[in-house]
Amino acid sequence: MVHQYKLNGYNIVMDIDSGSIHVVDDISYDLIALYNDHSKSQIADQLLEKYPAVKRDEIFEAYDEIQGLVDEGTLFTHDIYKDKIEDFTKRPNVVKALCLHIAHDCNLSCKYCFAEEGMYHGKKAELMSFEVGKQALDFLIANSGNRTNLEVDFFGGEPTMNWQVVKDLVAYGRSQEEEHNKKFRFTLTTNGLLLNDEIMEFCNKEMGNVVLSIDGRKEVNDMMRPTRNGKSAYDIILPKFKKFAESRNQDKYYVRGTFTHYNLDFAKDVLALADEGFKQISVEPVVAPADADYAIRKEDLPILFKEYEDLAAEMVKRHNTDKEFNFFHFMIDLEGGPCVYKRLSGCGSGTEYLAVTPGGELYPCHQFVGNTEFLMGNVWDGVKNEKLRDEFKCCNVYAKKACRDCFARFYCSGGCQANAYNFTGDVKGQYEIGCELQRKRIECAIMIKAAEADM
């Protein structure tokens, strides 16, 4: 399968099944589009009409170069996984990561919060006890097989509202590493209201990554992320986040925002964060019910495509300058990249990755928490709903009809199961708006790589 597109002056040809990327001239670009359905002479005849100043021999020479790419296996290759894919239900049950819901409570009132202001459909606020968290870490160690590196994300709600338990669990995890030949990588997601020097110092010592939630420009952030007492969250968190980012040497963190129908010009929010000095940025589309006033709509897509393209072009301009920054959705590894299993099956929710509630219940991921249809078990008894686990094991790009012929399938790995379920009622379904945006992000990311290689 081949995907061709033009962006920012580059003619890009993606050979999906080999992972090869080619940047070509206009003649080669048009020739590739004709290659499979026309003979060499037919292609020359058509291209001579479009490029009258070009000689037939030059077109034949370009054709031979394209044929060389085909012969070497970097163009028009065949999918080597489609017919050989293993039965994913037979894979060992190895858990590699947990999302610990340290607090089902929050000190913000974000309008787009899928967790109902951190409560996750609960009737009252809940904080995870040390005993539950300790059992969760024991569960992870016991179910991680021979894997050495394990990940634990402290999530909420707002996890700093239960900060002592966070610290105690980190200490407990560290105490178990040598005995069990494990290494924990802890991460934290926070809205920043309670950040202080002590928390920052602890995170810089113990957290492999921190996610700092801020939506961009002040007016955008404060419209969707108000404090409960009506004060500006932006004014409180911005100086803290800037200090935190600098204390981590502008590495191993993200400022993460959400854009909605109300700020379709989200590239301005990305650049506003970059101009404040942040080097690691993620601003992502809201995922919301279609009837929500802030939801992204199909008619918004052309605007958003242009925003991504303009952002990518600006990032090319800033490359190798003091204004350069990383944008999470444009970060792509064209050489190493994820293993084959990850390219086919994605994040591992419900199998390798589980969410733990304050009460110790296990769910496929944080977005399913509170929907008892997806309750998988608990940290004491383990995963009991094996049928559900097997269903998530089978969430791969070949099991999803919409993915089979999509050029982005090995880059997005089939997308988010929670989004698919929430919009279609099936974890193997398709969240169409999300797919459209992902395809555009991949095109932009590859263009950036082409531009950097050209510098």
Give an overview in words.
With 455 residues, the protein is of the alpha/beta class. Among the domains are: 2-78, Arc Repressor Mutant, subunit A; 92-184 and 343-394, no CATH class. 38% of the residues lie in helices and 16% in strands. It has helices at 26-34, 40-50, 56-71, 130-142, 163-180, 197-206, 218-224, 233-247, 267-275, 301-318, 340-345, 386-393, 409-412, 417-424, 432-453; strands at residues 2-7, 10-15, 20-24, 97-101, 103-104, 126-127, 149-155, 183-190, 207-213, 253-259, 280-285, 326-327, 353-356, 361-363, 377-378, 382-383. The strands form three sheets. Strands 12-11-10-9-8-7-4-13-14-15-16 form an eleven-stranded mixed sheet. A three-stranded antiparallel sheet has the order 1-2-3, with helices on both faces. Strands 5-6 form a two-stranded antiparallel sheet. Helix 1 crosses helix 3 (56-71) and helix 2 crosses helix 3. The two termini are 29 Å apart. 40% of the residues are buried. The mean pLDDT is 92.
